[in-house]
Amino acid sequence: MVVSTSVGLIRFDPLTKSGLDKSYVFISHAHSDHVGGLRSDANGYLTAETKDILSKGRGAEEAENFVALKYGDTVNLGGASVTAHNSGHILGSAQYKFRDGESSIVYTGDLNCREMLTTSAAEAIPCDMLILETTYGSPSYVFPSAADVYVEIVNWAIGQIRKGKSPTFTVYPVGKAQEIVKIFNEFTSIPVVASPSVAKVNEIYDRNGVSLEYVNAASEEGKELLKQPCVNVISPIEKISVSDHCSYASATGWALRWGGSSAAFPLSGHADFNQLVEYVKRVKPKEVLTVHGFKKEFANYLSRRLGIRAREIPLLKQGSLKAYF
Prior knowledge:
By secondary structure, the protein is an alpha/beta fold. 24% of the residues lie in helices and 25% in strands. The protein has seven helices and 18 strands. A seven-stranded mixed beta sheet has the order 6-7-8-9-10-17-18. It has a six-stranded parallel beta sheet with strand order 13-12-14-11-15-16.
């Protein structure tokens, strides 16, 4: 999304580096589909935690020149300003409030509005215009409580271990993997083995105050643990040496409509429908622009039920906000 100001263009999570050289770029978090703007010579900003995650993987070199922010930090751009706030999605994820004179815009990025073991709930930031991520913006996606999902995950894992199987979670290595590790740390004494890509991110979470207990699968201790039933946490593209002895599971909000052959649990780093509605009510915007997922359905709901002017942003649209006024 692009905001035009007197000091130039401000871009939030641009998809590519094209045309960014004279822009101000703000990256919301470290997932690969949000960091296209790193590959440019733009004036860039992200949180310190996001920069830390990127420093160990994709985008490492490109992130070097980006300024690291803390939540509450404000970047002054002439008569305009941008302030970083927690979005609750993963470590370091941010929503940004843009202010120009009396007008204000909040860009949420990926949003999670409830407390998790590894993240705090997103702040509700009052504004005139809200650019809202609506991945699960349909009434058919209302998640059970996080506590209930934790219980389901632990009970399933214990059941697999009793069968002589190793419960193996194939999840995003940034964010979801750390939540899974923390679940077993908090509620069981079952050893957790993390694949190398997950372990690399675990180290960053540890360094930023989220303590995790696990063993790296590449270590000698990890190789020995993998010979017996234990909890494994891997990325979808990784394999482990004892795969014949594993029972696989996913953790995703899409599990509410899951059709796969493996187990799946509705654990998400995104807000569900009810969370999104409550977030909008707390923010009290004059207008909402919806992006991703059920964006049209959610915009229609806001218009019909809450009387808020709301519209979807077309797929992959990278136009100026002036087009929506």
